[in-house]
Amino acid sequence: MDPEKSAPPPEGTEVPPEYPGFVDISVRLTGFDEFELRGTGMVRLYHDTTVEQVGREAVGRFIDDLNAAGGDPDGLVDETSRDIARAITHLWYLGVWPQLSRSVHAALGRERANVAFVVSPESWTEGLAWRTFDAHPPGAKAPGHGSWSEPPAGAPAPGALRQTEDAA
User: Fold this and answer.
1) Can you give the three-state secondary structure of the chain, one letter per residue?
2) Is the pLDDT of residue 3 over 50?
3) How do 96-97 and 117-118 pair as beta strands?
4) Rounded Cα–Cα distance for residues 62 and 60 (Å)
5) ∠ Cα 41 44 45 (to 5°)
6) End-to-end Cα spacing for the chain
7) What is the longest distance spanned by two Cα atoms in the chain?
8) Distance, CA of 162 to CA of 135 (rounded, Å)
9) Which among 4, 34, 78, 148 would be 20 to 30 A from 154, CA to CA?
10) pLDDT tens digit sequence for 92-109
11) Residue 59: which residues within 8 A CB-CB, separation 6 or more?
12) pLDDT digits 0-9 by tens, 64-87
């Protein structure tokens, strides 16, 4: 092991966060903030997966297109950039790199197979889909003993639905 790489940074210097540009893009695409995305532990893996699947040059064009659209993914007009945005969003929410459209895959000229795949076992449990509705992935990240006895966050109080049904 290289002692210089494992040594802490000199006092008074701050370690820059990994992949800040990818996190910024991911914030725009997912609607989750930087703290939440970094908390998944998936930033590096998702960045590397994206670059491996579409290529560094295509990622650069995508970033340029997103910036030209004012950071609004809905403003993307290029088919390849839209598909990359969709793929990154899909990756964050489900932990799966999706199959790209045939035309985009052909345009990228990539030699990699154009298939969907789970990026890692942890990516499924860290998927943002679970956080969007305050749930836990089945078989992982159990909410705790007896949690089933409480209504989910944001659910109407017991009996509230019955009162509205009776009034109708």
Assistant:
1) CCHHHHCCCCCCCCCCCCCHHHHHHHHHHHCCCHHHHHHCCCHHHHHHHHHHHHCHHHHHHHHHHHHHCCCCHHHCCCHHHHHHHHHHHHHHHHCEECCCCHHHHHHHCCCCCCCCEECCHHHHHCCHHHHHCCCCCCCCCCCCCCHHHCCCCCCCCCCHHHHHHHHC
2) no
3) antiparallel
4) 5
5) 85
6) 71
7) 72
8) 24
9) 34
10) 999 999 999 999 999 999
11) 50, 51, 84
12) 999 999 999 999 999 999 999 999
**Are the CB atoms for 135 and 149 separated by under 8 Å?**
no
Answer yes or no: are the C-beta atoms of 87 and 50 closer than 8 Å. yes
CB atoms within 10 A of CB 162: 10
Residue with token string 């964050």: 92
Residue with tokens 């839209």: 82
Please choose, from the candidates 90, 121, 83, the residue with its C-alpha nearest in 3D space to the C-alpha of residue 104.
83
